[in-house]
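Hey, I'm writing a tutorial for new members on how sequence and structure tokens pair up, and I'd like a real worked example in the thread rather than a made-up one. If someone can provide the structure for the chain below, I'll link this post from the tutorial.
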Amino acid sequence: MTGRPGGDPTTPPAGGGPTDRGPADGGPADGGDHRTHTLGLLYPPSGRARDYTTMQLAFVGGVAEAAAPYGYDVLLSPADTGDDPSFRRMLGQRAVGGDRRGDGGGRRVDGVIVMEIRREDGRVEHLVEQGFPFVAIGRNHRADEAGWVDLDFAGLASGCVRHLADLGHHRIAFVNRSEELFNSGYGFARLGHEGYVTAMADLGHEPRAYLCGEDLASGEEVVARILAEDPATTSLVTMNEAALEGVYRGLTRHGRAVPRDFSVVGVAASPWAEQVTPQLTAAEIPAKEMSRVAVELMVERLRSPGSTPRHVLLKPLITLRSSTGRCRPVPGSEPEPEFPDFDVDFRYADFDASFRTSPGRGACRTRSTAAASCVPPAREPLSSVSAVPWPPAAPTSRARRPSAGGTTSPWTTSSPV
């Protein structure tokens, strides 16, 4: 990935051209004379096959685009540990275990942008110990010593739960990222889980969280697990955009139409949210904006190494699309309503007990203070039923009767019916 050559990497060019600021305004920790005009990007792939997901590639492209106007190239490393050889080579240091491929060439970058931050992250620890300039997309307690930009994942997960609760849902599942990422301590996965659990507890609902691989098949599998454990589930919150299409397919396979029978809301970038049908109601992950802010924070760090680090926490609003609706309980999942028992004594009915009905009909006999109770129809003896001829005989003819004015009345007739 190539930035714009020739410009000062500490100041964005005005009007698209290079600036004339001197090199003393920026540079790495060991001096401006050894500037590389390159930023490092530590970004381990999170796909099941150790490849970059579409969301991750959006961040990579965003960083490269944001760095170019400052005259920086971007060097990408998949390092996820502090002793990864590519990470050590980036800093111009000998790799752990005697790998000398990092020696001889010096550092390769002026500063480092760290992504996929864990609660305990060896990369961040090493950068802090070495005093090497860095910023983070994400955060932990050590990243506070440098600048960072992050989403309020706990607040976003909580907001998604409350959106569903406002629609009447209370059986709400949570689909998180993969087990590997969660157990490794990735901040966004842990923060999202905490926000979901807290919101469910505040609402008095039982939380049910699931870890899910980042592919289509995993999305289908997690839906099968959710409905097997609680068939009455009517909604879910997801932070796993890579499995989103699989989630939709799984719901269709189990006869749940979105949003008629099942509501889905999540934290996902708009390309993911808009490519499924119906489109996903979601809080946006602004990859391009976060990348731009991270590059700005990195440049500030290089220009003013002693300045107070700046922290930027973003909390996008939920964009309402088409994947959520009012809760419709699954048939059979709600308790049957209970009705009071009435002691009806027919000896005190309010009408004559000799009331008779036509054959085939029932009579309702009740006291004024009791609920109606239907009783079998009373049958009359055949001897008491009068015979009715069929068809009825035609009426006799009636002559026109003159009216008082000498005319005939319109309601009389002279012909047989």
